[in-house]
């Protein structure tokens, strides 16, 4: 196989360190993330080595799962489970690129609308605008938040 992604290398190294430090939350979260990465590598017709961008995609998905689970547990009054999911999300966030602020997302959306010439088209242009934005915001912003801002500016 080809050279391993640097991010995956860092995750493995940090897992070893967390195990030595007996940091239960960090080591179990990193184990879970590395398993998700391995599953992504063997999914599909043939096994492949993930690039750093692919690993960031897996991490984003895992972080989103944790945030949604934490919200669901909190809503159901299971605070200890919500806290566990939140702690896992924070561990994963350490490996993600810095998240975009709402103002930065709004600026990117404005620029994308101008770039695609979608200003007068309304909601029909949503796909065109999202197509430009998705590569720029991948791993750096929640897709739902980006889509909501696009809807707000187009609507």
3D architecture notes:
- The chain is mainly alpha-helical and 155 residues long.
- It has two domains: 6-93, Hypothetical Protein Yqey, Chain: A, domain1 (Orthogonal Bundle), CATH 1.10.1510; 102-154, Arc Repressor Mutant, subunit A, CATH 1.10.10.
- It is built from seven helices and no strands.
- The chain has helices at 6-20, 24-42, 52-75, 79-93, 102-116, 126-137, 143-154.
- Helix 1 packs antiparallel against helix 2, helix 5 (102-116) crosses helix 6 and helix 6 packs antiparallel against helix 7 (143-154).
- It is globular.
- It starts with 5 loop residues before the first helix and ends with a helix.
What distinguishing features does this structure have?
single chain, 155 residues, mainly alpha, Hypothetical Protein Yqey, Chain: A, domain1, Arc Repressor Mutant, subunit A, 2 domains
The residue ranges in which pLDDT falls below 50 over 5 or more consecutive positions are: none
Assembly state of the chains shown: single chain
Reported CATH architecture of the largest domain: Orthogonal Bundle
Q: How many individual helices?
A: 7
What is the domain tally?
A: 2
What would you say about this model in short?
With 155 residues, this protein is mainly alpha-helical.
Give the topology, please.
Layout: H1 6-20, H2 24-42, H3 52-75, H4 79-93, H5 102-116, H6 126-137, H7 143-154
Helix pairs in contact: 1-2, 2-3, 2-4, 3-4, 5-6, 5-7, 6-7
């Amino acid at each position: 196989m080809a050279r391993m992604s640097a991010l995956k290398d860092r995750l493995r190294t940090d897992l070893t360190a967390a195990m030595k430090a007996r940091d239960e939350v960090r080591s179990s979260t990193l184990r879970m993330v590395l398993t998700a990465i391995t599953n992504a590598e063997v999914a599909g017709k043939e096994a492949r080595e993930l690039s750093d961008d692919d690993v960031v995609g897996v991490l984003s998905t895992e972080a989103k799962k944790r945030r949604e689970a934490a919200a669901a547990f909190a809503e159901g009054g299971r605070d200890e489970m919500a806290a566990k999911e939140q702690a896992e999300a924070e561990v994963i966030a350490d490996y993600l690129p810095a998240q975009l602020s709402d103002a930065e997302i709004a600026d990117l959306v404005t620029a994308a609308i101008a770039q695609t010439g979608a200003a007068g088209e309304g909601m029909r242009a949503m796909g065109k605008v999202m197509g430009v934005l998705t590569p720029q915001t991948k791993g750096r912003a929640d897709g739902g938040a980006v889509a909501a801002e696009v809807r707000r500016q187009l609507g």
